[in-house]
Each structure stands twice: as structure tokens, then as C-alpha cells.
Amino acid sequence: xxxxxxxxxxxxRAGSHxxxxxxxxxxxxxxxxxxxxxADGGPAHSLTVGEGFREPLGFHDPTPTFSWKLPNDAxxxxxxxxxxxxDGVKWDSGWIETDQSSLLPYSGxxxxxxxxxxxxxxxxxxxxxxxxxxxxxxxxxxLLSAAEWNAKWIRPSTPSDPxxxxxxxxxxxxxxxxxxxxxxLYVTARGLFELELNxxxxxxxxxxxxxxxxNKRLDTLTYDVTSQLQSGENVxxxxxxxxxxxxxxxxxxxxxxYGHDPELLLQLEIxxxxxxxxxxxxxxxxxxxxxxxxxxxxxYDGETYDARKPVSNWGPVHVSDDLGSxxxxxxxxxxxxxxxxxxxxxxxxxEADRFVFDLGQNMVxxxxxxxxxxxxxxxxxxxxxxxxxxxxxxxxNYRNAKSTDTYTAAVSGEIEWEPKFTFHGFRYVELSGxxxxxxxxxxxxxxxxxxxxxRRIGEFASSHAKLNQLQSNIVxxxxxxxxxxxxxxxxxxxxxxxxxxxxVFCPTSMFNYDCHAFWKSWLASMRDDQMPDGRIPHVIxxxxxxxxxxxxMDAATIVxxxxxxxxxxxxxxxxxFAMMEKLVDxxxxxxxxxxxxxxxxxxxxxxxxxxxxxxDTPGPLLATAFYAHNAELVANCARVLGQDDKHQRYAAxxxxxxxxxxxxxxxxxxxxxxxxxxxxxxxxxxTFDLIPAQMKQPCIANLVRxxxxxxxxxxxxxxxxxxxxxxxxxxxxxxxxxxxLLQDSYPSWIYSINxxxxxxxxxxxxxxxxxxFGDAQMNSFNHYAYGAIGQWMxxxxxxxAPDPAQPGYKHFxxxxxxxxxxxxxxxxxxxxxxxxxxxxxxxGGQTVVEVVVPPNTTATLVxxxxxxxxxxxxxxxxxxxx
Length: 882
Ligand code: BGC
What we know:
Layout: H1 16-21, H2 26-33, E1 45-49, E2 57-59, E3 65-69, E4 79-86, E5 89-92, E6 96-97, E7 104-105, E8 116-124, E9 137-141, E10 153-156, E11 168-176, E12 180-190, E13 192-197, E14 200-201, E15 217-224, E16 232-241, H3 243-246, E17 248-249, E18 254-255, E19 263-272, E20 277-281, E21 287-289, E22 294-298, E23 302-306, E24 315-320, E25 327-330, E26 336-343, E27 346-351, E28 354-373, E29 378-384, E30 386-387, E31 393-394, E32 404-408, E33 413-417, E34 424-432, E35 445-452, E36 458-462, H4 465-481, E37 482-483, E38 485-486, H5 499-512, H6 516-529, H7 555-567, H8 571-590, E39 591-592, E40 595-596, H9 619-640, H10 644-665, H11 679-687, H12 693-709, H13 721-730, H14 734-742, H15 749-754, E41 767-768, E42 772-773, H16 790-798, E43 800-802, E44 811-814, E45 824-831, E46 834-843, E47 846-853, E48 858-861, E49 870-872, E50 875-880
Parallel strand pairs: 2-9, 15-25, 23-32, 44-48
Antiparallel strand pairs: 1-3, 3-7, 4-5, 4-6, 4-8, 8-9, 10-24, 11-16, 11-21, 12-15, 12-19, 13-14, 13-16, 17-18, 19-20, 21-24, 22-23, 26-35, 27-28, 28-33, 28-34, 28-35, 29-32, 29-34, 30-31, 36-45, 37-38, 39-40, 41-42, 43-44, 45-46, 46-47, 47-50, 48-49
Helix pairs in contact: 5-7, 5-16, 6-7, 6-8, 7-8, 8-9, 9-10, 11-12, 11-13, 13-14
The chain binds beta-D-glucopyranose (BGC).
């Protein structure tokens, strides 16, 4: 893109903060310096548009927000001025007095489809001095509505076998005559697409266009193909997979949730040097076929490839004049891409001629194989997260997902191959069907890691090897399950956007990766799929047509609130407010005098030692607790949105439900009544503030008693586990909170690690060295829900926590929990204002706390040595504990 505002480059030199930090412990220097060295007297930097986009192409928002960061020598912004230029039209905000430098709304004329926008910003610092203009940043809009599309939906003219998952090829030959100055390819599919232009891939995106509620919204992608076009004949070819749109998805292996055959919508707009332009669209000029080497490509079952079958039998396409009613809008978050490749760590041969490759890490993606093959022979590639005792693959937990790729060779020799429209959850890869007598080499198998390509923003590290392994497992769990939507698990015949799992993991996810845009997009699908009566489906997008479980549906209120707290984005509350209200309406309709007495619920899912998966805490208790919690969150959102009447109304509703809850479920002494005593029931009462103040201490005492009765262990499932450590800590039992986190016998976080976990498991004992595998029906080795503990590790073990009253880390808390079992713990987070660090080190009996506060923010320091709370200013700080 052309630069439309002259850039101003300033020399940079290390600031004073950099030098100060050099004095702290050596281990912290590496982590600290990267976030600290910046220019003095410099302009704003790190300009982003919308939800953290840097120089996006195909941007989605015609009235975006703008964000920038201040250099470290600037303590505070007192005003800013922002300038945009689009199509030669300049817009100047003028000086606006505010200390906000993140997500500033744009009040100029809305941008149009295709527009290229350059923008820059300047600010006044705390002394009132105006700093120079920043270097310019750019973005280009995609096609903002269906009205921009002249293309037609196309697919092969013959339908496919509805029980199979074949792949379609579509192609168009066209001539380019003249000097191309710009070419943009706009594309979407009902299904999954991959494009080649003149034999090379158009982008590094995978699983495009992703999974939305396809009948309501289809995300479109924009690619710059200027340099891929050639003078003379060009060939554009698309492969289409049935994917989530028309493939097998859901427990009942439903085929064709949204349609039967995949379809393509594409528009290629070419500009020439002489000022002319041409547009090529998907229409009747294309050809299509089902016949080619990919016989079948299925998300659950894997891919079947026959190299003997070249793409052939091109025929006409079926053309639809109806664009459909789904919104066509640019994809509002990063697509899935390859983010890492893993090498083989070991090879075994547990059965003759079946080689098992160990990648050393449970991961999600596929295997790229480079293997010898024999003509007409089929090499089979199978996957597993774990091995049986005899070293063979354990695949029972995949349930009905076949998760197998095959390659049939056209000639003998060595091939390199990887699939297109399937993914697997695995650590082990088994190869069979290879030429007789071959000896395996490690480079035969490479693990290709795929997930939504979000920016890594957080790190947690400590002196405790198993906590570090836990953090690694949480991050791998997030990577594997953030594949376009937040999924429960990535391997069995499920892989859906389970709302309960998502709401418990959301806060932790926001520490590890910049998931702002990711969650906003998923919430848009949730709005699309909310049921007419207000319930939220169990999974989003809704692939199973059911909903209404407390603790699951509540993703509709909890996720927007958490995203708001961690980003400061008010729009996420505004966009979702009506959905939240409808959900509370539904809860209200189920209640009588504030109590819900009947409900269909997943309960405190997978609570250890419970007689069934739904746990011991009754559904009606959970429903009433979550009803109150939802009403309270909606009241909070209304307050932030300035809707005072609604704030009061929902706050009153929350208070009434709490009172009903307390009267029904608690006696005056803070003991549970009318329900079995469970850790989760006591927890929710305090965490959701459901009982009067004077009952909380006794209630916590009961919780502590139950933990003691469980010999220092959890008796919580999906709903209680995220809160137990946090709430015990908050209610004056930090030691016990730490004990639970560091507990190493079943059930506990470290227990799974002791059994060899490299990701979060669905059950603490999905596998144990003593007892082997758990019930295969519900035995995922990559389920992020229990990774929700990550939030507490960042917020308390290291001590870096957001402040809901000044969201987006404009102000935050530094409140480390110093535990003598650790020598250090440290969190580093790229906040909207810059790098924040909180960490502590104990050595020789002396504990030192180091903090970095980004420019234009403040932090409140709360240390456990009894000193008063202190507000700390931007910069690097070091405190010695008394
Ligand atoms: C999923 C869970 C989900 C649950 C509902 C399971 O099959 O894998 O993680 O939340 O169903 O109880």
C-alpha cells in the first residue's frame, strides 16, 4: 500500500527504565528489557486499528476504533489528535483531551469498501507538550456488504453423494493484458476453500472461511494477488471441502448441517497502469469437477488421497443467482495458519511394519509426511494422543472420528504430502502400508501445528517445574482448541464451540493470546444463534440444536464482560447487551419467587467421585446461582453503558434472586440446606456474592472443611473448579489455595502432569500410570476447561491483575502471592498500553518484587508485608519485601 502521510523517523536510544532494570536478578532481564527500551521524546508507536489489527487488508469495520502506545519516557497522555486520509480525503479529529490511547472511536465519515486508509496520531504528554506525529499506519477495507458482490455462487453441476465428503475443484482460465498495478481477490465459501493462482497457493490461510452460523453470516477474505498474476493466460483454481458447512459434524454424525455441497463465491478485481480495470467473478464461465486425487476430506474422519487420479472430467458449474440471506462481511479476526512445526522425538515399531512416531507434544493439526511409497500401494497415517501399554495407538477416545489419512501412490519413490481440510488431535503418528523392508527415519513425519493465528501476548514463568509444565499445557490446550472457534476438544467426534468450556477458560485465554477479535466474532455467532426463547445453544455455532444449561449459556454474559475488563472495549458490551437481556428474561421465566426449581443441566460436569457426570451439586441450585450472577453482570454492563434505569432494574433483580437463593439454600449460620453439601455450592454462594456478608466467613469455613474432608483435594467439576483457588485465596486462605494448586495426588492439576500430560485433560485421571485409561466415552487429552487456573497463576502467583473499574489495564493491580515453595514467579503481558510485568524472586531470605508499569497507566501495589497500598507510576520498579 502506498504511504500517504510522510513518515517521521526518530533516532531511538535506550531509556532510563532500561538501565534501572539491569540491576534486578539476571533471570528477569531477558523478560523485562524487551518491553522497556523505547525512545525518549518520541511519537506514539504500535498503531493498531479495531481489535488490535496491524496494517490489515480486507478490514471489516467502516467506523473503527484506533489504538496506539506511548514511548516509555511519556508518563501520560493528556490529549491526542488523529488524522486519516482515504482517497485523498483528509479527516482530522483536532485535539481531543483524554488520557485514553486505546480503542478511540472514529467520528469521521464511514469508510467504504476497498478504501485504503492511512492514519497517524500525535499526543500531548503529561507536561502538555505535543509530540511529533507517529509514523503512518494503513488499512484497506474488504467488501463490506453483499451489495458489493457481482459474483454468483457456483459448485459442480452434479451433486455429490450426501453420505460422502468428497472435494470439489473449480477453475477459471483468463487472460491478463497490460500492466497490473493492483489485484484484489475477494472470496468466501459455503464450506472450506483453498485457492491456487497459476499453480501457487494464494495465501497461507487454512480452513477459510472458518465456522460461523453460515445461514446468517459468511466471512469473506481479501487477498492481494498483484504479484501472482502474469501477462497472458492465468489459471485460478479453487478446492472446496464440505468442512463444517456440509460435512459430518455433531454427535449424531449429522451430514450437511447447513447445506449439501460446498459452493464458492469469488471476485477478482484487477487495476491496470493505464487506469482501466477488470473484474472476474465466479459465474458460468467456470468449470468444475468432483474427480481428483482427494477422494474424501472430512474433519472427523481424515483425508483419503489417491495420487493416481489427477483432476479430470471438468464440466459445467451450477450457478445460483441468489446470493442468499447471510451477511457477507470481511472476516473480523485472524484465520487459521501453520504456526509451528514439530520434529519427531522417537520412533517405535510395536507391531511389524507399523511405525509409531512420537512428536513429544500433544498437538492439533496434521502430519506432513515425507515417505517412500510403492506404486498402487496405500500408506496409512493414523493418529493418537496416547499409546496403549503395548505401544500401539490408543484411539478409543476418538469415538466415531476415524481420524485417518491415506495416500495411494501413482509411482514408486519418495513423496511429500499433507492433507487439506481435516485436522487431528495427536502426539503420536503411525505409518503403515510402506514398501517392505524400509527403515523409518525421523524426518518422515513433521507435526504441523494449526490454529487461529492470534498474537501471543502473555508469559508466565516460575521456579516450579511442574507449574511451568502446567502453563505450557494450558497454552497448548488453547492453541489446539482455538481453531477458528473455541472448541471443547480437537480430536473426537465433537470439536464444537461448547459454551461452558469457553466461559470458564476465557479469562485465562486473554492472558496468553490476543483473543479480543476472536471472542468478539464468536459472540457474534452466539447472537446469531440465540434461541427464540432466549436460551443460548450448548454449542456455538449451533450444530446440535439444543441449549439451556446453567453455567454453559452464561457464556453470553461472562465472555463479553471478561473481554471488556481485559481490553476496555465497551462495544463488546453494547453489541451483546440485548442477547444478555434475553437470556436473563429466560432465566426469569423459569423462576418462581426468584428460585429455579426445575432445569435440564449438565451440572458441575465431571466432578470427581460423583455418581454421574453431572456431579453432586443440584441443577436447580446452579441455575438459581447463575441466574443471579447473570442479572448482576447485566446490571454491571448497563452501568458501563450508561443505562441507569436498566442498571437499577437488573441490580434489584439480582438482589432478589440472591435473597431467594440464600433463604432457600442456607441457614443463618452459613450452612447449606435443602441440597447436599458440595464444594461447588459453597463456592458459588461466595464467589457470586449470593449470601449476606455475615454468612460468608462461615460459608468459607464450610468450604475449607469440605476440602479437608477430601484430604486437601478438589471435589469440583467444570463449574466449581475455576473458582475454588481464586475464592479461597480471596477469602483469606491463600496458603490453602496454593496447596490445592500444588497438590499432586488425584484429583489435581499436578496429578495429570505426573501422569505425563502435555496438554490439559478432560479428566484429572484421563490416564494414570496405575489404572490406565478412563472411560473412553469422555476421555479427551486436550480439553482446556481446567486450564482456567491460568488466570490465577498470572493474577496472583505472579501478581498481575486487571481492574474492572479501569478496564484494559489502564489501571491494574500488582498483588503477588509469595509462597515459600517457589523461588520466583513472574508474569509479562503486552497490555493495550505496553508491556506490564509483575514478578518476584526470593533468594537468601530476601524477596524482591519487580514491576513494570506501561506508559499512560498506573498500578496499585499490594504487598503481603503489611505496608500500605501504593499507587505506582509508569516505569520499572523494584521493591524489597520487609
Ligand atoms: C464436551 C464438554 C461439554 C459437555 C457438556 C462434552 O461432550 O466435551 O466439554 O461442556 O459435553 O456437558
